[in-house]
Amino acid sequence: MDSKDPREPQQPKRRNLMNDLDAFFQSNPFGDVLKSIDDFFSNHSFTGFPVRLYDTNDEWVVEAELPGADRDSIRIELLGDKVKIAVDNDVEMESQHQETGVYSHERRFDHAERVVTLPYSINRARTQASYTNGILKIHGPKSPKTGHNLSID
User: Which InterPro entries match (predicted)?
Assistant: First the structure.
């Protein structure tokens, strides 16, 4: 007979903490809150916009993807050996529901910027920019960087 006496103290059952945590999160304790947070961060880029830097035989080229950006909302600054691209997008939307007559007004302001460090000095007089089909292209001649070294007396 292998039956235990109910009066004997029983040993506590060992639990695995990791299994308990997995079971907790698989039960969806927060509803769809975590999914909505994941969706928000996957649909919003906080790193800015895609930028590509490359060379041709005689010039450097910076290309930035800015789909939907208005030409007037793009600012380019040349800072030594750096190119700073900033985009401000101010969108205003109004709508009125025909059946209920509910009026809504929404305004959204987005700002994104990127700074690209070039391996060359920037010749401001010969650097040009163009914006076509959502692609900003900035290019200029390759000029070696001049050092700003200080000699020691």
Answer: A-crystallin/Hsp20_dom (IPR002068), HSP20-like_chaperone (IPR008978)
Q: The tokens of 46 are what? A: 């906080």
- Residues 58-103 pLDDT 10s: 999 999 998 888 889 999 999 888 999 999 877 777 777 778 878 7
Residue 37 and residue 106 in one domain: no
Alpha-carbon span 79 to 138, nearest angstrom = 14
* Cα gap 65→74, rounded to integer Å: 12
Q: Are residues 53 and 71 in the same domain?
A: yes
Q: Is the pLDDT of residue 135 over 90?
A: yes
Distance separating alpha carbons of residues 86 and 93, to the nearest angstrom: 23
Residue 11 or residue 90, greater confidence: 90
Beta-bridge partner residues of 60: 55, 140
**Rg of the chain on CA atoms, in Å:** 30
Backbone angles phi, psi at 71, to 5 degrees: -55, -40
Domain-embedded: residue 53: yes
CA-angle at 77, arms to 134 and 130, nearest 5°? 30
Same domain flag for 25 and 96: no
Give the phi and the psi of residue 37 in degrees, each rounded to 5.
-65, -45
Residue with tokens 């910076």: 62
